[in-house]
Amino acid sequence: MKSLIIILVIIGALIVIASGVWVAITLITGNRHEK
Amino acid sequence: MVLSVAVVLAYVVLLTFVAVRARAAREFEEFSLAKRALPLALVFGSLAATYVGPAFSIGFVGRGFNSGLLFLGIGLAYSIQNILVGLFVAPRLRHLKGCHTLGDAIGQKYDQKCQVLAGIISVGLCAGFAAVMAKAGGGVLRDVFGLPLWSSVFIVVAVTALYTTFGGLRASVITDAFQFSSFAILLPITLLFVLAFHLKGGAATFTSQASAATTNGLSVTSPIEIIGLLAAFLLGETLIPPYANRALASKTTRVSRNGFILAGLFSVFWFMVMIALGITARSIIPADTGEDFVLLNMVKSTVPAGGYALLLVVLVSVVMSSLDSLLNAGAVAFTQDILKPFVKLPDTSALNVGRAATIVIALVAAAGAVAVPSIIGGLLICYTIWAPAILPTLIIGLWIKRPHPLAGILSMGVGTVVAITLWIILWLIFKFVYPANVEIPPLIIIPALGAALLAYALGHWIQRSKSGV
Complex ipTM, two decimals? Predict the structure, then answer.
């Protein structure tokens, strides 16, 4: 049970990190296109 | 409607199963500190689940909608705070022997009077924070079941209080980690879904909306308000009782340090996702949507019914994972800091008192939920009192060799009184003398903190001159 929850925590954290990185890249590339 | 109710009920049953598997606490040490055996993943997951409450989800999406990247910058102050606490404060706190609470730590460094005062402030603030969570959770359930607000608030508080009362910190941490994974998976998926299927113009639209929202945010927020908000996010939630309990309950000082650092780094990415959701909502829902309704309304108008039901699960978990930590921390502070200094309690009695206190704080939070103005507004009031009331005493006490009790008492007393008095005066001024829609708490935190620091210096100087040390 504890191991399962730890795995879920790691998956959740990785998904949020990947999404945050993707948002940052979108903002940076979008700014370049605007210029 | 039927689907939403079914999904939310199924989630609550699953959560109860997780809580039951975490088993009931059998002694006070287990109820308050989970026997000081929490591994890194649970400390990190639980910390993140506790700070990601309605303000850092619903509230931040609303602020992203209105102020764009401005609130990402302000949120970063919070991330820096967590990393600094991890680097410099949490290991020192964990290093203290026999501490169950923040008040205990203050009691060890100063004296028993300081511990009792810290305990009173901790319990009051936990009840205040819990009232904000109760209001947010009640709002979500009202939306699902169509019940009156008071009964929705009661249901959220009762379910959370039930597993926290029996399981204590261990149940709180394990359910937190479980709830963390549910919202950390579902909210980014919501963002990707909306961006992929509902945002016309792709990255260029997103960037132009971000720029327009940020310009709007900067034009309506004065520099002094920005400085106040930065101070509030940097200091207001620093080591509030549930975080301090996680620092104390970590397996080792290293786990305590790394848990806070990881939680701080994670919050940067979390804020990005929340602000991005708010910015995306600008081209989907009407511009006059209320701040606390942006996320709900956007999901309602874009995601199919099943997705909306899942979002409600996310919101329930966001609220309950913060509420359970606050109820447990308040109950432990009451037992350890307010009662134990005066009454000799055997372990079983302490455990029972802790359980009873959990229920009483839950009831106070449910009753106080009606007085909460808005989610972020309510939290800012709590931040404004917490930082001046506790931080100077706690942080200076952990760093200097012989802190003087008079300095601690004066700093905590003056910090609390100045913060509350200023809040009342400014509220009266902006309500009756110069009617204006100004966010008051950010204007208070720096002067109140200054007053608390001055009071600390004065107390330190008086006691040093008296004792000649």
Answer: 0.89
